[in-house]
């Protein structure tokens, strides 16, 4: 039984690490090229009205999720927020691809090399990883019985 919990712990922590790397990279690239990020948001047919607010909110949210992953008691919350933000990003891409008359530039950094469809597949892969992590997270921790503490490390 303990071995099974350890395997789940490693899977959860591996997925958490992938999200930490993704969000650190994404937020940092947005901040480094902040003006370009703001311009790209302003060019978006769906987000232009909120581009000023979003240009700050998105990287701050990404860094906040990373910080939550670093705090033991908030790891599950961080994973749930990761799932939620990836759903939102993916829904945005879907709407841009299917309902927008204009498709703006993609993300900055390495992810800029991906087309919108490839970016959507990338996002779906991260959504599926988050679902796996949420499912394997021990339910005992969620209801507070503290019978499994291996995920605390």
From TrEMBL:
Top-rank taxon, per record: Bacteria
Residues in Methylamine utilisation protein MauE domain copies: 10-135
An example Gene Ontology CC term for this record: membrane
GO biological process, one term: methylamine metabolic process
Pfam families: MauE
Protein's cellular compartments: Membrane
Membrane topology: Multi-pass membrane protein
Keywords, ordered alphabetically: Membrane, Transmembrane, Transmembrane helix
Name this polypeptide is given: Methylamine utilisation protein MauE domain-containing protein
Organism: Flavobacterium macacae
